[in-house]
Write a structure and sequence with these properties.
The protein is mainly alpha-helical. The chain has 18 helices and 4 strands. The protein has a two-stranded antiparallel ribbon. The chain has a two-stranded antiparallel sheet with strand order 3-4. The longest helix has 32 residues. This is Major Facilitator Superfamily protein.
């Protein structure tokens, strides 16, 4: 199998003026992409409930379709070779992702959609989005000069966070307003039209961004599978880390996708309250990232991952304690802090425990395994709801088993050797926003900062 070569393996030569224009266009892409995330896929589960597909379907649509993207990632190098360009592949994915919102808007307008069709549309969305991830990481390395990466990716990340949050609030306000007037489905139609339009603008910025001249097309790929004659075997610590991350994802997804139906159906939250809960977790996660970055620099990524992993253990079970809105709001804030530590810690550990030459290949494998774990966990949770019924007590079992499984996963983490140094930071692209801050994110490999780098 093949992988996309890193930027260092490609010829690069870009005039300064073109570099500046590219950076502005990349910021435009981040802004409009963030807007799409905030008002688009975030509301797929709520839409499933609105069209009457039920609580189990609402959980499945937030997780199972990601497998399509994880699988397509594995074959993306051949598609890039066929298209002859990283940019063409990335722009094609962006346009297809935008197109996925068209049938959703039509379905919302008419008020009817089958579960099979919704899963297919969501699979197209995630296939188009995740499959371009490795290519985008390689491409953006060529676009952004090495000396500007720390400051630029910090700025780009903050911009996407802002637009995602703004769109999340605006979309929630739209749904609250439309539902109070009896036409919530038309509100969803408006959201999906807006999300598709935002992604098209993002695709235009991507199309306008000019990467440096590349090597010939047949030089753009190299084996994804290790060469038996000379490839290193990943260290044991890396294998243990990947096993922990995948197992943890199974138990997180056992309950995670079902918080939306629990809030909207069992607790009867309005769209406004629902979005407020998600927003609290999102904001606390964003603001605590800086703190955890300092901890990682001083104490190591392993410490941050441990603190995050321990913090995640009780979070789902705490939903059993009370249905009081203030209590749940506090849980959301704590969730954001814990998820910030966990995500930053595991991505820093991932990059520190893996040899540089194997990161792209193993990150692709991890993404694939991660999407399988998400689907497996969600289907197990859906099975429990199917057998015992969608009652509050069934949800309590989901939340309790999820916390117990997370605790058991710490046993796998305990055997991992801690790295001897820490990267200062690594920026992440937000791909989806979830309740409890368990967002779908992807690391920007070019943004990794070594300890000796100047602060951004």
């Amino acid at each position: 199998m093949d992988r996309i070569l890193t930027a260092q393996e490609l010829a690069t030569d870009m005039p300064p003026r073109a570099e500046d224009q590219n950076l502005v266009r990349s910021l435009g892409d981040a802004a409009f992409f963030g807007g799409m995330v905030g008002c688009g896929e975030t509301y797929f589960s709520a839409f499933a409930l609105a069209v009457g597909l039920g609580e189990t379907a609402a959980g499945l649509v937030a997780s199972v379709p990601l497998v399509a993207g994880g699988t397509l990632q594995l074959i993306s190098p051949w598609a890039i070779r066929w298209l002859g360009s990283l940019r063409r592949w990335i722009v094609t994915g962006a346009v297809l992702q935008a197109a996925a919102f068209i049938p959703l808007a039509v379905a919302a307008w008419y008020g009817a959609l089958s579960l099979t069709l919704l899963l297919l549309i969501a699979s197209l969305y995630w296939a188009a989005g995740l499959a371009t991830g490795p290519a985008w990481n390689t491409w953006i390395e060529q676009v952004v000069p090495a000396g500007q990466r720390a400051r630029f990716f910090s700025r780009r990340s903050r911009l996407q966070q802002f637009t995602t949050f703004a769109a999340l609030l605006a979309a929630g306000g739209m749904l609250q307003w439309s539902s109070q007037r009896g036409f919530a489905l038309l509100g969803f139609a408006a959201l999906f039209c807006a999300a598709g339009s935002l992604r098209l603008v993002s695709a235009w910025f991507l199309h306008r961004t000019n990467a440096p001249p590349l090597a010939p097309t047949n030089m753009l790929v190299a084996p994804l599978l290790p060469d038996a004659s000379g490839a290193q075997t990943p260290p044991t610590s890396a294998k243990r880390l990947l096993a922990y991350l995948v197992l943890m994802q199974v138990f997180v997804q056992f309950s995670g996708p079902f918080f939306v139906p629990y809030m909207l159906e069992r607790l009867d939250f309005s769209y406004g309250t629902f979005v407020a809960m998600i927003s609290l977790a999102f904001v606390s996660k964003v603001f605590s990232m800086t703190f955890w970055g300092r901890v990682a620099e001083q104490r190591g990524a392993g410490k941050v991952l441990w603190l995050g992993g321990i913090g995640l253990v009780p979070l789902s079970a705490l939903w059993i304690v009370s249905t009081n809105v203030v209590w749940l709001a506090v849980i959301q804030i704590v969730s954001g802090v814990a998820w910030a530590a966990y995500e930053l810690g595991f991505f820093l550990m991932f990059f520190e425990t893996l040899p540089a030459g194997q990161r792209t290949r193993l990150l692709t494998y991890y993404n694939f395994a991660n999407t399988l774990a998400m689907a497996a966990g969600a289907m197990a949770g859906a099975g429990l709801l199917y057998v015992f019924g969608c009652h509050s007590e069934s949800y309590y079992w989901l939340f309790g088993v999820s916390s117990a499984g997370r605790l058991l996963c710490l046993g796998v983490l305990s055997g991992i050797a801690l790295p001897t140094h820490s990267l200062r930071a690594i920026r992440m692209r937000i791909l989806a926003v979830r309740p409890g801050a368990s967002s779908v994110v992807s690391p920007v490999t070019a943004s990794a900062e070594e300890p000796a780098d100047a602060p951004s």
